[in-house]
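go over this chain:
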Amino acid sequence: MSKFLVMWNLDLGRVGPDAVKAVLSMPSYAERMKKQNKLVHRYHLVGKHGGAWIYNADSNEDLERCLAQSPVYNLANFDVYPLAEMPEPPAQDA
């Protein structure tokens, strides 16, 4: 399973009457993703209309499915960054 950082921001040009409903649905979507072990963490971007979410996904297609289920999928712009573990460097002899 791979981790992905997904930064999303509402596209205010696409926001209409359904936007409030979509945004208010995000906590239940997050809970569903957590129960499926697809969502690791979610954060609000202070001062922005969006978030930074870390997903677990088996493949790019799996991540696409997760994002397509998001209530704000058609209202937001998404930037996706694959994450890699950063191992500790070996100890240096003094």
